[in-house]
Q: What sequence folds into this?
């Protein structure tokens, strides 16, 4: 029987785009990382994706945080993925499994994963 959250064999990642909530959750030992995406950012009123991400990364330096590419074009997804990955050592890049046309991103994922 699990007695406390630290005994769980899972990692809990907070999903959102509210900077105040991210800061508050960063101080919680049970939150192991963060994830967000363009849709959540838009809903939170974020208008400058890169600036928001970099502000968050000034606070979240040790825990993993993932940001998603926002293009529908695979060449542009690749460019964005490389740019996003360069922002900090704790950044992970999310790439959707397909674009809005239903085309798979598997080739791009393989390419980026092999480097």
A:
């Amino acid at each position: 029987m699990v007695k406390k959250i630290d005994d769980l064999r899972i990692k809990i990642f907070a999903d959102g785009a509210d900077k105040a909530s991210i800061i508050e959750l960063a101080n919680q030992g049970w939150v192991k990382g963060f994830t967000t995406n363009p849709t959540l950012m838009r809903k939170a009123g974020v208008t400058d994706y890169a600036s928001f991400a970099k502000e968050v990364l000034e606070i979240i330096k040790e825990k993993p945080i993932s940001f998603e590419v926002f293009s529908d074009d695979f060449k542009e997804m690749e460019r964005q993925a490389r740019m996003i990955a360069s922002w900090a050592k704790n950044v992970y890049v999310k790439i959707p499994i397909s674009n809005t046309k239903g085309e798979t991103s598997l080739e791009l994922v393989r390419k980026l994963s092999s480097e």
Observations:
- The first helix runs from residue 19 to 26.
- The chain has one domain: 10-23+30-113.
